[in-house]
Amino acid sequence: MTELSADKLAQFISNITFEKVPVSVREQIRWRLLDALSTLLGDETNVMRLVPITSQGRSGHEQASVAAEGRALSLESAQIALSVGALLEAGPLPAWSTQAFAKTNASIIAAAWSAVESTGGNGRLLMEALAAGYAAAAVLAEGVPDDDTLAGRVGACSAAVGAAAAAAKAQGLSATATLNAMGFAAGQAAQLAEDTNKRSDAVGHSGAARAAMDGVLSAHMAVTGAVSPADLINLLKQGRQAVPIGADAWQLALDRQPAPTADQSAQRFRERLSASNGMARIDAIIKLIARLEHTEPGVIRSCILP
Fold first, then answer.
1. How far apart are the first and last CA of the chain?
2. Residue 193 lies in a domain
3. Helices (H), the chain
4. Which residue has the higher pLDDT, 57 or 218?
5. Phi, psi (5° rounding) for residue 152?
6. DSSP letter assigned to residue 63
7. How many distinct structural domains can be found in the chain?
8. In a domain, 189, yes or no
C-alpha cells in the first residue's frame, strides 16, 4: 500500500493493456456493459432500438484501433457521453449496485464508449478504457477522508476523473496528458460540488451525464496540449488514507462494487428485452459482449441507433 500519487496513477492508467487487466476484471467489464445495454435498449420510452449486428462498411485498416495521442475527439463524442450518461442514469437501478456506484458506472461507460467510437477503436480498446475508468474511480474513492468538505470534493471527483481516465485511455494518451485530463476533470467536479453546496454524495453533485461529458471534454483539452493547473492536480492527492496503485488497484475495482455474474447479467438482459425483441438477436448481443475483445470498430454501436 502506498499513498496516492497522481503521477503514479496516471502512469498506471497509461500503461494499461488488455493483457494486463486481470481476467476477473475483464469479466466484470463485460457484464457491466451488458447490464448498461439492457437499460439503453429495455426502456419502452427509449428512442434507441435494436438493429442487425454488422461489421460491414469498414476496411481492414479502419477495423484496427486507431486511437493515438494528438487526435482530438469530435464534438459528437461529448454529445454521445452526455446522452448515454443521461439514459443510463435515468434507467432503473441495477439490483447489484448502489445508487452512487450506478452513477459512477454510467459516467465511465458513457465516456469510454463515446471516446472509443470517436477514435474508431475496437472492442479491446473499449475494455481497456473501461478498465482504466474503473481503476481510477476506485483508487480515488478509496482516498476519501473523514473531513466533510474534502470528502465532498474528492467524492465528486471520482466519477468525472474515472470518465476522463477512460477517455484518455481510449486515445492512447501519455501519462503526462492523462494526468492533465484527470486534473481538468477533478477541477470541474470540485467546482460543481462547491457551487451546489453539497457534501459527500459520491457523484450526486453533477450526475452521470455531466460527469461523463466533463471527462470526455477534459481528455479533449489534454489532447490539444492544455496543461492542468497544479492546484487541480492536487485535488487528486488530498486523501489521507493509504491508497494502492498498481496490482492492488484491480482488487479495489472489484471490491468497490461486485458486478453480477455472467449468467445473472445475461438473464436480466433477456428478461428486459424479450417483450419487444427477438431472442435470436438478444442472444447475438450477449455473445458479442462475451467476445468483446474480438469485436471490430463500430459493431457495438451498430446494435443501437438513436
1. 45
2. yes
3. 6-14, 23-42, 75-90, 99-119, 123-142, 148-170, 175-196, 207-223, 230-234, 247-256, 262-273, 279-290
4. 218
5. -65, -40
6. T
7. 1
8. yes
Residue 290 carries which side chain, given as an amino acid letter? A
The answer to whether 217 and 185 are in contact (CB under 8 A) is no
Looking at residue 62, what is its pLDDT? 36
Domain that holds residue 158: 6-23+68-260
Which residue bears the cell 502512469? 11
Residue 132 maps to a domain: yes
All three cell numbers of 92, joined, read: 432503473
Q: Which range among 23-27, 110-114, 134-138, 144-148 shows the weakest confidence by mean pLDDT? A: 144-148
Query: Cβ distance 158 to 204 under 8 Å?
Result: no
What digits encode the pLDDT tens for the residues 142-168? 755 555 555 455 555 688 999 999 999
Q: Note the pLDDT tens digit of each residue in 9-40.
A: 899 999 999 999 999 899 999 999 998 888 88
**Residue 56: left if φ>0, alpha if ψ -120 to 50, beta else—which one?**
beta
Would you say residue 306 lies in a domain?
no
> How many Cβ atoms from other residues are within 10 Å of residue 228's Cβ?
23
Cα–Cα distance for residue pair 63/298, rounded to 1 Å? 8
Q: Dihedral of CA 125/131/137/140: which sign?
A: negative
